Amino acid sequence: MADLMLHSLKEYEEIIFSLLDRTAPNSVLEIGSDSGPFTDRLIKYCGEKKIELVTVEPSPSQALAAQAIDSEVYNLYQGLGLIYLLAPGCRSEFTLIDGDHNYFSVYNELKLLDRAWSERSPEGVVLVHHVGWPCARRDSYYEPNGLPSEVVHPHSFDLGATLEVAALGKGGLRGGGAFAMALNEGGPRNGVLTAVEDFLKDQPRYTVRILDAVFGLAAITVRGTESERHVNEVFGPYDNALMRNLERNRLELFLKVVELQDALNAQSAAQPAG
């Protein structure tokens, strides 16, 4: 079922590589690689451009580990984004955040990136994935026990999210044991978009541009910089009502397929064996 749902940064290749071409960073930081389909493209791009690439991933694939051994530009850090940003810290002008999709992780990753930028004064871009539904206002956790208990909302690995419904329930988009989601949507310190908004309130020198497609992509830059201009040029053609309507339709269709699949599974389970 997951194969039916576009979910990777790979779907944003045209946009991300256009930004990389314009900003020409010396170093790129990727927080979260999943199974690595987009990381493979990043490794190739950075290799051709002679740009350092650092991937931070708690459970990297063997293929990524092998590429890190063989590559002159690619470095792999096995662990959490927050730990990496604390030590050794960030030296990258271009960062992609696509790790643990919850308020605590994203807000503090942004704070640590701001600290690193303030010390080195680079002009850069931070891209944050999953600022759209369902994680915009609802935390998601891969390892909730690895976070401070006081920042983790009540959650479920089995219940799912549906559009326009605040509480999780049976069916809907769910982790199937791979990740948990907060039982309720909304409220303080809940969700990736909430984390981005709170960071901008605390650090008003930054601005954000958001694309409402493939679970939402935010670009954070310092106001008045060339990087902000580049983001506006690249994001502009995609920031419109058509894209938002297509994303809404995509989600509705996927959830309908999940509903039908659940009904078929229930019907099969109810039939007598043999």
Q: Count every beta strand, where a strand is a DSSP E run of 2 or more residues.
A: 10
CATH superfamily: Vaccinia Virus protein VP39
Poorly predicted runs of 5 or more residues: none
CATH topology assignment: Rossmann fold
CA-CA gap between termini: 26 Å
Proportion of residues in β-strands:
15-25%
Instruction: Label the CATH architecture.
Output: 3-Layer(aba) Sandwich
Annotation field: number of helices: 8
What share of the residues lie within helices? 25-40%
The quaternary organization reads as single chain
The whole-number mean of residue pLDDT values reads: 93
- Which word captures the global form? globular
What's the arrangement of secondary structure elements?
Layout: H1 13-23, E1 27-31, H2 37-49, E2 52-56, H3 62-70, E3 74-77, H4 81-86, E4 94-97, H5 103-120, E5 125-129, E6 140-141, E7 155-156, E8 180-182, H6 192-202, E9 206-211, E10 217-222, H7 226-235, H8 241-270
Could you walk me through the main structural features you see in this protein, from its secondary elements to its overall organization?
The chain is an alpha/beta fold and 274 residues long. It has one domain (2-138, 187-241): Rossmann fold. 39% of the residues lie in helices and 15% in strands. The chain has helices at residues 13-23, 37-49, 62-70, 81-86, 103-120, 192-202, 226-235, 241-270, and strands at residues 27-31, 52-56, 74-77, 94-97, 125-129, 140-141, 155-156, 180-182, 206-211, 217-222. The strands form two sheets. A seven-stranded mixed beta sheet has the order 3-2-1-4-5-10-9, with helices on both faces. A three-stranded antiparallel beta sheet has the order 6-8-7, with no helix packed on it. Helix 5 links the parallel strand 4 (94-97) and strand 5 (125-129). The longest helix is centred in the C-terminal third of the chain and has 30 residues, at 241-270. The chain starts with 12 loop residues before the first helix and ends with a helix.
